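ok here's the first one, seq then struct tokens
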Amino acid sequence: MATAPRPRTTTRDPQELGRRLTGWLDARLPGARVTGVEVPASNGMSSETLLFALDHPDAPVRACALRLAADPAAYSVFPVYDMARQHRVMRLVAEHTDVPVPRALWLEEDPTALGAPFFVMERAEGRVPPDVMPYTYEGNWLHSASDAERARLQDATVGVLARLHDGFPAGEAAFLLPEGEGSPLLRHVESQRAYYEWVVDGLPRSPLIESAFDWLDAHWPADEGPAVLCWGDARIGNIVYDGFEPAAVLDWEMAALGPRELDLGWTVYLHRFFQDLTVSFGQPGLPDFLRRDHIEARYAELTGHAPRAMEFHTLYAALRHAVVMLRIAYRQLHFGEVRVPEDPDALILHRGSLEAMVRGTYWS
């Protein structure tokens, strides 16, 4: 992990984007200037983030962040980037709940201006648990915090999910349902199956991922529970914290209408992903942080809803993450950053964890 080359995240020139953005903004705020353009070190490989300052006396905010749909030339991670959908979700969450989301400003669906659709929002100030190197490694602010401080952050984070799920009117999220028939959970799984087929089109298929889909079919929850607005990418690496309290909840591109456990399973598993990797490299990590039993108990305490079928939902989270990782690996192959292995499952970093889940031995 420490020496592997970080996959490229963009093929765009941030300074050129800044110049084009200035021209676009001039039609909305004549005379506005874009300054201090930068790409954050944590920029992802899906939609891209550009940070900048807006210089104009009538600017609604000064510190801004721009989310730009992925460049197709960069072998995008997802087949579709619906920026209007993400912008709408953020505005609705701000309208209906007290979950802290950045103030969403302008939306541009015409790709002419910057080469892809985008939206501008207020930049949140604070600190984010790092992904590279993961916060489970030594040498970052969260790992260096006390047990009590991490417990405070954990409880506050579960509180974000509780307030979102309880406070948002589910009917307002109906537009997030994928096309098709069946329950929200069934439609969600089928959309992930379609995503997997897109990832492996013309490329080696993953026996492990396909066995995980088979496991889901064989262990479908008898009671799926009520559908709520799910954040989708519910992990602490997508929250800006002020101290140990959430100041801004980011990355709503995976928002969905589905069971509460979609978010809970993702929160649990994405921490386990980092924790398992850290242990495999000889460090203890944070074994008492974001534990599944603690998250389930805290969520039930806050909402009165006891999480159900969590082995299903944590495996589903690991499966979804495996499909994304396979796409990222094939993206690295495309750019010549890694070699093609004989076994495509070797491209999945958490192969051992997902195999153990399919066997039923991971949580034992």
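and now the second one, same deal
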Amino acid sequence: MQFGIFTVGDVTPDPTTGRTPTERERIKAMVAIALKAEEVGLDVFATGEHHNPPFVPSSPTTMLGYIAARTERLVLSTSTTLITTNDPVKIAEDFAMLQHLADGRVDLMMGRGNTGPVYPWFGKDIREGINLAVENYALLHRLWREDVVNWEGKFRTPLQGFTSTPRPLDGVAPFVWHGSIRSPEIAEQAAYYGDGFFHNNIFWPADHTKRMIELYRARYAHYGHGTPEQAIVGLGGQVFMRKNSQDAVREFRPYFDNAPVYGHGPSLEDFTAQTPLTVGSPQQVIEKTLAFRDYAGDYQRQLFLMDHAGLPLKTVLEQLDLLGEEVVPVLREEFAKDRPADVPDAPTHASLLALRKDAPTEEGARA
């Protein structure tokens, strides 16, 4: 099982000081957080993609390429690549290039995003969001697997004899997670291709998350990729920790109350009761995260959001120390207990390459 962090890259005033970091400071902080993630033994760093203030990560592959050069083990991912407004040809090229630079330590999460105005900024119609996601990914899937592509669709110009370059590293496409909070069509899409499904459940109660994951697992089996239990599932989460839980609540409350997404809404107590947000001691984080398995089953990737709402970099790095030293080692051990042998690990470039080498050739299959 993989454990890591994801960032949305918000530039938010610190409510305790009133100071807003510059864009440069925030970008550099995201890099520092990724480096710290590797240092404390996490597996994954994922960045969002946004094209509007107060967010800065408009070019994920630029940032991930820079981080790749400064890390050795960390899997570099996105916590959303906008499949609706990005050209699938450019996605194919950018992430194949990143694959080569990072020696395969790359995957990505497809999503539609949650900012409506981004569609017209890139010449798209938000009313076609689902259709864009379906058509664009169908093309991207082919671009990584076919050397020469002839294609015609509704939302971009046709392709005739087109070859995306560079080709994927070792002939293995980056693994794709399809991220969704509320759209069953995206769970269906992930199941159809046998890809991963990431339910970023940070704003949702457990019963909703359970229904979405069960739908994906059932459809994954329907399409013949394996049993429902073998489907590839990822979850989000939010945590803020201190050794003493009362200290954690007291310190985090002003950040929660003024956060750009859920600030001035539900109380901290209501939100922690109804969503995966955990504010407390490392032991409380362990207990709540382990409970995710009760409704999600055995899953492959757990990512935490830790650097949002104006939290200072120093505080985030302290959080990562606690996560890496006190929380994740226990989660690894506990999640491994009673895990069925046929439940797969999270896919990596090495595991996908091994599967490709073990697959029968076309001539062998005919024989």
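notes on #2: The CA atoms of residues 210 and 285 lie 20 Å apart. The two ends are 37 Å apart (CA to CA).
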